[in-house]
């Protein structure tokens, strides 16, 4: 299962040190700005949807990636670099991402972005090169370049070492999203309990346009923001900490899926979650 779902190799380069120090401060500010600007929440209670048994994840990358427009977050005086747990703007691979190019998968770092591609209806997983975490805020800027309604980019959160048990957020090619909780049954088959069904939202931009996803996990609470707007908050106590991984999945109805990530920031969570009163759809 480890080879099916987690691939981590270390590579290092050195360049643009002063430029990255400047960007660090900008990135640290991004989370607080997004949290403050959030304005919409759906309240969902875990439970209700039945658990369905499926075969374990078949992980295994693709083709060319185009340059992702970079979103520069505004600076606020309240953000500090000491609150950062991890960040990368992919100037190089000094952080040690797993880079490879095989028949079904492609992982490359170039043009200030991490490009992930997958074909043949596979799941490509790219774990963050960090230690496991418990409570955190994570912001990722990405562009979904090739995908249909069944293809997605997303995040595994609070995952175990094999990513058999985790929370999963999918962002699909038709501007919808879903949230689920994964586990194994007694026969080691993957169980996917749907917590939020595939839901359309006006806050997700379409193919070829950059999006910013922010996830705040604090205790039993999980909050999802899309482009600065709170669209979902859920409560669950099953998983309390673990690894984080990015994934791109090629579903059953297209020839491939690809995405480019231009920044990832892992951050200490705020003392209080944002409060919102209206729908995020």
Structure description:
- By secondary structure, the protein is mainly beta.
- It has helices at residues 2-5, 17-37; strands at 43-45, 51-54, 84-88, 100-101, 105-110, 113-119, 123-127, 136-146, 152-159, 166-172, 176-184, 190-200, 210-218, 221-226, 229-235, 243-249, 256-267.
- Strands 1, 3, 4, 5, 6, 8, 13, 14, 15 and 17 form a 10-stranded mixed beta sheet that branches. Strands 2-12-11-10-9-16-7 form a 7-stranded antiparallel beta sheet, with no helix packed on it.
- A hairpin with a 3-residue loop joins strand 10 and strand 11 (176-184).
- The longest helix has 21 residues, at 17-37.
- The model is unreliable at 6-22 and 28-79 (pLDDT under 50).
Give the arrangement of secondary structure elements.
Blueprint: H1 2-5, H2 17-37, E1 43-45, E2 51-54, E3 84-88, E4 100-101, E5 105-110, E6 113-119, E7 123-127, E8 136-146, E9 152-159, E10 166-172, E11 176-184, E12 190-200, E13 210-218, E14 221-226, E15 229-235, E16 243-249, E17 256-267
Parallel strand pairs: 1-15
Antiparallel strand pairs: 2-12, 3-17, 4-5, 5-6, 6-17, 7-16, 8-13, 8-17, 9-10, 9-16, 10-11, 11-12, 13-14, 14-15
């Amino acid at each position: 299962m480890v080879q099916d779902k987690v691939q981590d190799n270390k590579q290092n380069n050195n360049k643009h040190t002063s430029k990255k120090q400047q960007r660090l401060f900008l990135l640290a500010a991004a989370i607080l700005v997004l949290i403050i600007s959030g304005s919409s929440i759906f309240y969902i209670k875990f439970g209700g949807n039945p658990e369905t048994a499926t075969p374990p994840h078949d992980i295994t990358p693709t083709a060319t990636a185009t340059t992702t427009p970079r979103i520069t977050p505004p600076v606020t005086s309240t953000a500090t670099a000491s609150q950062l747990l991890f960040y990368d703007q992919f100037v190089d691979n000094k952080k040690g991402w797993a880079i490879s190019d095989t028949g079904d998968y492609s992982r490359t770092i170039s043009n200030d972005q991490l490009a992930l591609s997958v074909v043949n209806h596979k799941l490509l997983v790219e774990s963050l090169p960090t230690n496991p975490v418990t409570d955190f805020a994570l912001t990722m800027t990405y562009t979904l370049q090739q995908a249909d309604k069944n293809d997605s980019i997303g995040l595994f959160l609070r995952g175990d070492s094999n990513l058999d048990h985790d929370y999963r957020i999918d962002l699909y090619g038709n501007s919808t999203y879903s949230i689920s909780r994964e586990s194994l049954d007694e026969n080691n088959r993957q169980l996917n309990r749907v917590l939020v069904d595939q839901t359309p939202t006006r806050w997700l931009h379409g193919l070829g346009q950059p999006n910013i996803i922010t996830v705040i996990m604090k205790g039993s609470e999980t909050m999802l923001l899309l482009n600065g707007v709170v669209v979902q908050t859920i409560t669950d106590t099953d998983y309390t900490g673990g690894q984080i991984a990015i994934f791109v999945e090629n579903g059953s109805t297209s020839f491939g899926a690809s995405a480019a990530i231009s920044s990832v920031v892992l951050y200490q969570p705020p003392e209080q979650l944002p409060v919102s009163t209206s729908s995020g759809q």
